[in-house]
Amino acid sequence: xxxxxxxxxxxxxxxxxxxxxxxxxxxxxxxxxxxxxxxxxxxxxxxxxxxxxxxxxxxxxxxxxxxxxxxxxxxxxxxxxxxxxxxxxxxxxxxxxxxxxxxxxxxxxxxxxxxxxxxxxxxxxxxxxxxxxxxxxxxxxxxxxxxxxxxxxxxxxxxxxxxxxxxxxxxxxxxxxxxxxxxxxxxxxxxxxxxxxxxxxxxxxxxxxxxxxxxxxxxxxxxxxxxxxxxxxxxxxxxxxxxxxxxxxxxxxxxxxxxxxxxxxxxxxxxxxxxxxxxxxxxxxxxxxxxxxxxxxxxxxxxxxxxxxxxxxxxxxxxxxxxxxxxxxxxxxxxxxxxxxxxxxxxxxxxxxxxxxxxxxxxxx
Length: 365
Prior knowledge:
18% of the residues lie in helices and 32% in strands. It contains six helices and 20 strands. The protein has helices at 6-15, 20-27, 254-263, 267-278, 321-328, 345-363, and strands spanning 51-63, 68-79, 86-91, 94-102, 109-110, 113-115, 124-129, 136-143, 150-153, 165-168, 188-196, 202-205, 208-209, 219-228, 234-237, 239-243, 248-253, 286-290, 299-300, 305-308. An eight-stranded mixed β-sheet has the order 5-4-8-2-1-11-14-13, with no helix packed on it. A five-stranded mixed β-sheet has the order 16-17-18-20-19. Strand 4 (94-102) and strand 5 (109-110) form a beta hairpin. The chain starts with 5 loop residues before the first helix and ends with a helix.
């Protein structure tokens, strides 16, 4: 995420100015997550020292009239503590309808669940009982209109002015407002999703994406690399696509697409420079999604699909340094992540340092 506290970040960069090689070495290491049991995250209710999520599977329907996502999430679990008999998840502004457990992810049986007391910041813990042998839980739920991680836009708030638009913003602890899960950056999981949208609207996510609806009329996604929950991202709207290179392209509303593709046409070259500096790009594709003007940030580094503000589309490519910052997050932040939000400087400080290195390599001092 692009932040404006440049002086602070420069001090952080100065503190590691001798670590160009060190930073590069760190960010090309395999994506081995720290054991959740090694981390105490004060911003999460999850009992991740006992049970850890390894995969998230979403099946959701988008309802603009109700401003809700409705369906279920299946969580594949690893017992770090063999006798653990419950999993505690983070939730906020969610209606929990039921819970099931399974030993194989195919045959399900109801299990008990309980919501804890409301914390005004963290939300409510959801405790789901784990029968002996259970390695999966399913939570049936729907979000509420006030979910902090979801923005529901009326047609008048979009560039095209004809169709509504939805986008998520999960960083830092907003994923729990649209998915019940272990919402901590110390817990990395792969994910897949099936999203049903109203006719004429496309869903895109921070994952490998299908080019069209599947046989069931849903958009299908898969993210094979483990990521923290704050990088799970969804957008739904009148969204088109234009390629910019073999691994890069831009998604945007029709009214914005042509200008966006011109503005970000150098993205493939920037990606190649990144690889020379920091090592192989590990995420397959690097695409951009241009959000409606109400997007509250400059950019958000969701893997494979950076969310970006349309305000950088100036017609002269003078503000594309924002892309350098978000692309640098593909190494610093997305590969190597702060284990808790108390150490957020590890994500943004190193990324700002890498951004300056990248900008200098591409454009000169």
